[in-house]
Amino acid sequence: MLDKIIKGYLMDFKQDHSITSLDDSKAFEMFVNYTVLSRFTPISADLESMDTGQGDDYHMDGVAILVNGSLITTGSELTGLLKNRSNISVDFIFTQAKTGPKLDMGELLKFGHGVRAFFSQDTQKPMTEQIARLIDVKDAVYDESIKFLNSPECHLFFAYTGDLYEDPNIENARQEIEKDLVETNLFSRVGLQLVDRDRLKVYYRELKNKSVKEIEIGQYCDIPPIKFVRESLLGVASAKAFVNLIKDEDGKLSRGIFFENVRDFQGMNNVNQEIYNTLKDVKLSDRFCILNNGVTIVARELLKRGKVFRLTDFQIVNGCQTSNILFNSKELLSDDVFLPVRIIVTDDVDLVSEIVYANNRQTVVVQEAFNSLTTFHKNLEEYYRACRGPQGKAVLYYERRSKQYSGQEVKPVDIVTPSLQIKSFIAVFLEEPHNCDEY
User: How far apart are alpha carbons 242 and 225 in whole angstroms?
Assistant: First the structure.
């Protein structure tokens, strides 16, 4: 029987995604998939893209392949993403969801074996069409290994609705699964997370509630008033305080806050190596603030309390490279390392687009990254907005920018992403629904 709070969360989730007809067991699988994947990347209402929970499913309820933070479900999507890309980062995410309160070691081991079989070259296990397609995508990803910044990371999540187990047998099984996957030499990192009901509640609250974090900025000055900007400032923050801002509840880098930064982390290229060298050299680290351009943060709300700033629903739109290096080098940071910070508070979508464009045009970025800023996409967004239902409200919402409707009373199922728009056009107007997954 589900915990009452989890039951309430599940009902809320089913209503948000218009899946109230599903039984709780299947809905819980989708709930876990959505909640887990949202910790890695903002995702659309397409719950089926990660769902594998059916017969011959390798004992996995969800599989997601992320390339540079984007969810890839077909080989053609991978081809399009890799165009003009010289470096890529890859994450494989696997989930298993059980509505029961007990953590069954046998189920845990089956989950581990299923993930291992997913990467096996000679597996004879029967598989669903969905699993077979994802294995093809996995193989296509490894065919591009020359472009890996590092070997892919493998993340496993086993969710259940009971308390956290402190059973040495369970812990040994968890470690054995990780060890078995590490020995494939396919990954730079492997992690199996046991997600009990309390952790699941935290994950969902973080997803449903606007992201709220605090940072102390010792020195700052307000920027004069700007049209459509409620507040803005320039400041200097401790590098340690900034690292606390960009990590999640598990102490890992919160990747979702960099989604509007059109360039992914580029690895240890020459520039990033120089940033790292500055931090490593005790004679130079205190000069970091004047040697680095800093970061730009766009937030929907800002609350000041002395020198402590509470940011709500924020994105780092410039400074992804610096942020990654600081986080990965956090053990090197002393109290003398500071970082220039610019904070802009606005909910004007077009202004945010201009900020993203301006900040990222100062370095080499492929033009395709700015497609969402074009007049066509802006007009398409207005067209959707003009199509009203019986109550005078918009029926669908075109999300030309990721998380555009975050914090608003818009159900995920009513949001149309550019990817979903293309697939719908192919299925309806070209009358080729069978080819949707090829685009």
Answer: 26
| Cβ atoms of residues 60 and 94 within 8 Å | yes
215-268, pLDDT tens digit by residue? 999 899 999 999 889 999 999 999 999 999 999 877 888 877 886 665 667 778
Structural domain ending residue among the three candidates 325, 340, 368: 368
Indicate the number of domains in the chain: 3
In tens, the pLDDT along 341-395 reads 999 998 777 787 788 777 765 444 444 445 666 677 777 887 887 787 776 677 7
Q: Which of 252, 275, 247 is nearest to 153 (CA)?
A: 252
Residues 54 and 121: their CA atoms lie apart, in Å, by 22
Q: Yes or no: say if 131 and 114 are a contact pair by the CB < 8 Å rule.
A: no
Residues 152-180 have pLDDT tens digits of: 999 999 999 988 877 899 999 999 999 99
> Do 216 and 123 reside in the same domain of the chain?
no
Closest by alpha carbon to 403, among 174, 202, 129, 210? 210
Domain membership of residue 94 as a residue range: 4-207
Q: Residue 270 has what pLDDT?
A: 84
Same domain, 357 and 426: no
Residues 35 and 80 both lie in one domain:
yes
Q: Quick one: how far is CA 99 from the chain centroid?
A: 25
